[in-house]
Amino acid sequence: MILGIGVDIVDIRRLEEALRRTPGLRLRLFTEAERDLPAHSLAARFAAKEAVAKALGAPRGVSHLEAEVRRRASGRPELHVTGRAAEVAYELGVKRWHLSLSHDGGVAVAYVIAEG
């Protein structure tokens, strides 16, 4: 059963400029494993973090660092959720996450489904 759906789109250049202007932003938005990726990958991951929050109903107290996009050996992206985000997911009955990422034409998009 689908418990939540989230989608977000990010302008790659705008994110890149924000990260250049405010270096500490990279530390607040991305996990250590994500920080050194190219701009289009960071934009897709930021979109995924926003989409996770939307799928959870935008609860207070959830940090961007609590949703990490990892790659399986096959290359398929997967979500790893911790902290307050994981607590809310547990309370909602989320058992599985589905994630789709894409980037083209200067934008990145992420689509997240929380399944129970």
- What oligomeric state is this? single chain
The overall pLDDT average reads: 96
| Unreliable runs | none
Strand arrangement, major sheet: 1-5-4
CATH architecture: Alpha-Beta Complex
The top-level CATH class is Alpha Beta
**CATH-defined fold name:** Ribosomal Protein L22, Chain A
Strand content: 25-35%
**SS content category:** alpha+beta
The main pleated sheet reads as: 3 strands, antiparallel
Order of helices and strands: EHHHEEHEE
Rough outline: globular
* Rg (CA only): 14 Å
- How much helical structure, as a percent, in the residues? 25-40%
Total strands: the figure is 5
Number of helices: 4
Describe this structure in words.
The protein has helices at 12-21, 24-29, 39-55, 83-92; strands at residues 2-11, 67-71, 77-81, 96-104, 107-115. By secondary structure, the chain is α+β, with helices and mostly antiparallel strands. The chain has one domain (2-115): Alpha-Beta Complex (Ribosomal Protein L22, Chain A). A three-stranded antiparallel β-sheet has the order 1-5-4. A hairpin with a 2-residue loop joins β4 (96-104) and β5 (107-115). α1 (12-21) crosses α3 (39-55). It is globular.
